[in-house]
Amino acid sequence: QVQLVESGGGLVQAGGSLRLSCAASGPTFSEHHAMGWFRQAPGKDREFVAAILWKGPHYSDSAKGRFTISRDNNGNTVYLQMDRLKPEDTAVYFCNVVTYCVGSKCYTSGDYWGQGTKVTVLS
């Protein structure tokens, strides 16, 4: 099982920035796992935001040009730098292992989700 702890969310004005962190650990976690960020807005399904794959970063259309995903050298912490935030970015953000990507979206088969970190963007 992979343990995931997200942090860094908060309240920000539209146009502002936040940096989210995800600490991954556990007996089945490897620093070679592709990792990604997902989000769930109130009343909506969880959706893909960004992933860091072996070939580089991969972004959803809504994140492209505004968000940057990165990973620390030991591979256990994944970051999401979010700039030029919009009210529609308001959601709870989660990280997880990425299993595959199709087109502009990536997916996880991970059964376990952390508690997420809440981002609220004020207009």
Describe the structure.
The structure is a single chain. It is built from no helices and twelve strands. The strands form three sheets. Strands 2-12-9-4-5-6 form a six-stranded mixed beta sheet, with no helix packed on it. A four-stranded antiparallel beta sheet has the order 1-3-8-7, with no helix packed on it. The mean pLDDT is 94. The termini are far apart. It is mainly beta and 123 residues long. A hairpin with a 5-residue loop joins strand 7 and strand 8. The protein has strands at 3-7, 10-13, 18-25, 35-40, 47-53, 56-59, 67-71, 77-82, 91-97, 100-102, 105-107, 117-122. The protein is 0% helix and 52% strand.
Write the layout of secondary structure elements.
Elements: E1 3-7, E2 10-13, E3 18-25, E4 35-40, E5 47-53, E6 56-59, E7 67-71, E8 77-82, E9 91-97, E10 100-102, E11 105-107, E12 117-122
Parallel strand pairs: 2-12
Antiparallel strand pairs: 1-3, 3-8, 4-5, 4-9, 5-6, 7-8, 9-12, 10-11
Return residue spans where pLDDT drops below 50 for at least 5 consecutive residues.
Answer: none
* Spatial strand sequence of the major β-sheet: 2-12-9-4-5-6
N-end to C-end Cα span: 39 Å
Shape: globular
Q: Biggest β-sheet: count, sense, barrel? A: 6 strands, mixed
Q: Secondary-structure element order, as H and E?
A: EEEEEEEEEEEE
How many strands in all? 12
Rg, Cα atoms, Å: 13 Å
Going by helix content, strand content and strand pairing, the class is mainly beta
What is the mean pLDDT? 94
